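Got a spare moment? Tell me how you read both lines of this record:
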Amino acid sequence: MKKKNMMALAVAAALGLGVLPPAADAVSTRDIEQKRGEIDALRSKRSEVQEKISEAQKNIEALQSQQKQVANDIEKLNIAIEETSGKIRNVSADIDQTEQAIDQLKQEIAEIQERIEKRNEILKERLRSLQESGGAISYLQVLLGAQSFSDFIDRMSAVTTIMEADQQIIREQEADKALKEKKEAELTEKRNKLQADLQELKQLQAELAGQLEQKNRLMADLKQKEEEEHDHKMALEEEKELIAKQEAAVKEQLAELERQKRAEEEAKQRGRTYASPNGGGASSGETPSGGSTPPVSSGAFTRPANGPITSGFGYRFGGTDFHPGVDIGKRAPVVPVVAAADGIVFRSYYSSSYGNVIFISHVMNGQTYTTVYAHLEARLVGEGQHVRKGQIIGYMGNTGNSTGPHLHFELHRGGWNEAKTNAVNPLDYIPF
């Protein structure tokens, strides 16, 4: 925001607002027309800035609409992720149950296997008996060995029972083997399906999480753009306000020029020379106890405050930091700061970087200059106010981005701008 505030100042300073021509000089029609042209230019500029403000507001509303849509998308994705997570929990629980069933099946299979092995032993015994007795003939020998008809019937029943028992053993053996294979196949198939479902759900969850991350990044980007657009709009509104103040100041200058023009014409009619009612560039010179005003020099500019130069103009700290002015150290409890030349205050406010700061525009021989007085403890002049060379405008302080009590003073040949391209070394213009 600080840079945008400074941009607004740069626009105002670049308009070349200056003080009125010295009263001792004749006011020309050209001077009056020039001021009227400045007023028209300021009105046009204010209209352009208003259009930019309206455009910035439309951009803000569009960004807010996009954020609303993205917020809806994020809500839907969060719901989908929650549902997917629930499905994953259910499938995981089913897999755990299936694993438990598989463990149970392993016990049942072990029991079936044990029964199969026992039957195998019985069948092997039967086979050995048949081999030793000659196979099926043994059953005939049993029958022929009957001592009576009733004994024959008993023996026939016993043989039938044995044969049925052998067949039952074989049937149970086959049934157990089939049951074992069936259960193994069913559980294996179920476990494989559940694991496939789980993998698919986890993949879906990862995709949803990726989409959510993209939406969150988009939302952050939209919020950042909206914040930047708000800052831009605020800077434009500040610029518009500053232009309005500039316009009022120029109108005041125009009225003063017209008054001086009328006075000159009246003086000529009376046959005498017009003299300035304000007199020469007098300084107030009055300060509270504890400090004094610097003597007013005869050059174009005078020293803005008493004290040693603690930091000069140009690059410092190994060439990494450009200092666009000079710092004057504070060596008294109260140190007054004076206007370096006649001019008009076009900005007097508190800045996060400059602290209490005053910007004054000067016009000398058709050339515009701008002086800056920063880190003031107090400001005594307001915007649009005319000041005289050597007039007290504030007191040295330690406000804003300052590491100690001092005056940061800048001199610009032309208007002030954010890049400080018009900054010149005050030591080349002022006898310090």
About this structure: The chain is about 55% helix and 15% strand.
